[in-house]
TrEMBL record:
Gene giving rise to this polypeptide: fbp
Record: residues binding Mg(2+) 2: D117, D120, E280
Subunit composition and interactions: Homotetramer.
Entry keyword annotation includes Hydrolase: yes
Family statement drawn from the similarity comment of this UniProt entry: Belongs to the FBPase class 1 family.
Pathway(s): Carbohydrate biosynthesis; Calvin cycle
Pfam families reported for this sequence: FBPase (PF00316), FBPase_C (PF18913)
Protein name as it appears in the record: Fructose-1,6-bisphosphatase class 1
Entry's localization field: Cytoplasm
Entry cofactors: Mg(2+)
Xref: Gene3D superfamilies: 3.40.190.80, Fructose-1,6-Bisphosphatase, subunit A, domain 1 (3.30.540.10)
């Protein structure tokens, strides 16, 4: 249930009953991500002032170490989740291993684990191009009150209870799902409040935008090469438009609104592609499917892939259902 100008806080409360697991804990978890997103947004939006506020490694006027923004974002999200005592474990793109929260406290009844890419596309910051945060939430599978294990994190994406992203663009937006559709909230920085601006977001069934780093074209599998040439042919509603920002969250967000496909294929240079299954592909795939889109590795549904390692990579194709189906046909023929 949604209504115009609803705040994120109001939305969470009014829709709590629709959560797959009716638990105030999940609401508090989404609220803590909301807080961290506001803090990171404030810092990202002044990145251009590095020469004034100091670059990473410098010591700022307050005598604090100036952090690289992806380290800063990582620290803020982890700190916020820890301080609110909501989760029992966290895995991050910035951390080699997962982090156990309050493991010494056998009364720790927290049942959720969070996997996060705190600042995806961070290489774009220096050129003032939008970046994003991606998060994925599961219920733990090991007994409550015990320290989490790797099994709590290596769950198939179809077990996610919530997933979302923050896009730090011309405005800061928080887009997420708890399995009952996808809703987008825009931050009013003047008052620090997220407002429901994009209710019930959905991918158009088809689209005419393709997003891929064509600089790697000669290294792609034949089927992907054939699909890219198909996108460029003067036929039907083609050629499509090529749009590639180099920031997954931004390319995904635009394609969800306008219709399109994002591709990060495997190649002779990256045998499993570049994107990480657990904290990039799975959350974006959950959002895509909840928004009437599709996400696969070219053959298998992303959400059905059984993870084996925390930072494993998979080829990633995601977007309008018809476009992903056509891509998969080209991969099948190109074998
Ligand atoms: P390339 C950013 O590093 C990222 O993980 C995604 O956000 C983005 O789509 C992709 O990698 C860009 O990678 O190899 O095209 O520069």
């Amino acid at each position: 249930m949604s209504r115009k100008n609803q705040t994120l806080g109001e939305f969470i409360i009014e829709n709590q009953s629709s959560f797959k697991y009716t638990s105030g804990e999940l609401s508090r978890l989404i609220n803590s991500i909301r807080l961290a997103a506001k803090v990171v947004s404030h810092e990202v939006n002044k990145a251009g002032l590095v020469d004034i506020i100091g670059a990473a490694g410098d010591v700022n006027i307050q005598g604090e170490d100036q952090q690289k923004l992806d380290v800063y974002a990582n620290d803020k999200f982890i700190q916020t989740l820890k301080n609110r005592n909501i989760v029992c474990g966290i895995a991050s793109e910035e951390e080699d291993d997962f982090i156990t929260i309050n493991s010494q406290d056998e009364n720790n009844q927290n049942k959720y684990v969070v996997l996060i890419d705190p600042l995806d596309g961070s290489s774009n910051i220096d050129v003032n191009v939008s970046v994003g945060t991606i998060f994925s939430i599961y219920r733990r599978v090991t007994p409550i009150g015990t320290p989490v294990t790797i099994d709590d994190f290596l769950q198939e994406g179809n077990q996610q209870v919530a997933a979302g992203y923050v896009v730090y663009g011309t405005s800061t937006m928080l887009v997420y799902t708890t399995g009952a559709g996808v809703n987008g909230f825009t931050l009013n920085p003047a008052i620090g409040t997220f407002y429901l601006s994009h209710p019930t977001m959905e991918f158009p069934e088809n689209g005419n935008i393709y997003s891929v780093n064509e600089g790697n074209y000669i290294h792609f599998p034949q089927g992907v090469k054939d699909y890219i040439k198909y996108c460029q042919m003067e036929e039907d509603n083609r050629p499509y438009t090529a749009r590639y920002i180099g920031s997954l969250v931004s390319d995904f967000h635009r394609n969800m609104i306008k219709g399109g496909i994002y591709m990060y294929p495997k190649s002779s240079k990256a045998t499993n592609g570049k994107l990480r299954l657990l904290y990039e592909c799975n959350p974006m795939a959950f959002i895509a499917e909840q928004a009437n889109g599709k996400a696969s590795d070219g053959v298998t549904r992303i959400l059905d892939i059984k993870p084996t390692e925390l930072h494993e990579r998979v080829p990633f194709f995601c977007g309008s259902k018809t476009m992903v189906n056509t891509l998969e046909d080209f991969i099948q023929k190109g074998k």
